Every structure is written in C-alpha cells, then in structure tokens.
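User: I'm preparing a small set of examples for a lab meeting where we compare how different chains pack in three dimensions. I only have the primary sequence for this one, and I'd like the structure in token form so I can line it up with the others. Please keep the answer compact; I'll paste it straight into my notes.
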Amino acid sequence: MTLLGGDLGFSTFKDSIIHHLDKVFDLRSKNTLWSIGNHDNTSNENFKRFTNKNKFHYYVKDETTFITINSQDSLSSIVGKQKKEFFNILNTLRTKNVVILSHKLIFMDQHRIMDSQINQVCNGPKGICDYCHNSNNFQSEIYPKLLQIKKSGKNIIWIGGDLGAKASKFEYVDKNGVIFLGNGFWFMNKNNHLLLLSNYKNEINYKFIAIDTLIKHQSSKYINSLFSN
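Assistant: Understood. Below is the structure token output for the 229-residue chain.
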C-alpha cells in the first residue's frame, strides 16, 4: 500500500505535475490512497478522473479497513455526507484494524496535549485559511465515535500528512490506545522520515525511518528486518 497525505506538488493538478505523479505513484491503483491537501485540491470529478476514486473513500485489504478523509472541503471538519458515510463504515466494520488517512492533523485541535504543539509541528499555523490548521469537530463529534469503536476491540491508527516544513514525524498514543501519527517531508530538509506500516498476524506496527537510509537499503529483507524485533 502507498498512503499519500496530500500536497504532492505546489499546484498538483497542473498537467505536467499530475502526469508525473501518476507515473511515480500509480494513482489509479487500489493500493494507492491519497488524502488531498490545499495544494492539490480539485473537484471530486477531476480527482476521480485521475484516481478512479472519490476524495472520500475506503478500501479493505489484509484484514484492515483503510479510510481516506477529505479534510479540505469543510476546512478540517467532518460534516454532512462525508460524516454520515464515515460513521456508516465504522458501524459496519468487519476488520480488526482501521487506518484513517487525512491531510490535516485534525486530531490535534482542542486536545489537551496536542493542541499546544500545532504551530511547532504542522505546516500551517492555527487559523481560518485553507492552509491553516482550522478549528474543527474532531474532539466533539469524531473522537467519541472512534472511542466507541476502540472499546469494541478494534485497533485505530489515524495518520495526518501535513508535515515536512517544520517536522517530518509526529506520534501520540492516547490513554485509550488510539494511535495518532503524522508524516511528511520537504526536499529542503535533511531530516526527512518515512512512515512504514507492517501487518503481521493481524497486528499493525509502525516505524519512522530516515528516507536516506531507506533509499540506501531498498530491499524487502531490510524492511522486514525493521519489524522483526
């Protein structure tokens, strides 16, 4: 699986950029999931033309439900049709693992610990613009639903992609065992990391690996060894 957290280019849907990205990531593959950011926002119709997917969609593979959130059109809140569909998916889960992908790290907003870290971690500051980390309904409406699912025995990992300018990785596991991660990179930075997930015996583990190290050791044997301990 390839999970893309958004802002793939400065103006992603320019012809020269989007066709290049398609060659790199195979955007139409079921195994390539992409949560759009402010730099690659476009109409749902245009997004579907290049990906064969809606902005909000889900995919089940290897006993894991992958849910791709659109955190741009409603400025980081999950509302309306998307909220209804999201809750319907959670209510009918048949897998033990749930991986949720969004561009903005919307879970940080109004959290007693994470909120104060937004301006130091996320690419965009707290605010009301399309690239800012906007106030949203995660804590009031979304997290209670996740907690209900967690208490039913599911494993939940939420990944945000709007990082790279200030930090390349973020990790927080709350007292209920819900895992919140962030990952992104920028070519100007020297300390870029990549988030890797491993599903072994239906248990998902994760690691942040320096991109240069991963490029140097491009083999499945090396990657598997990272999760062997």
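A couple of notes for your slides: The chain has seven helices and twelve strands. Helices lie at 15-25, 44-51, 80-91, 118-121, 138-151, 211-216, 220-226.

User: Perfect, thanks.
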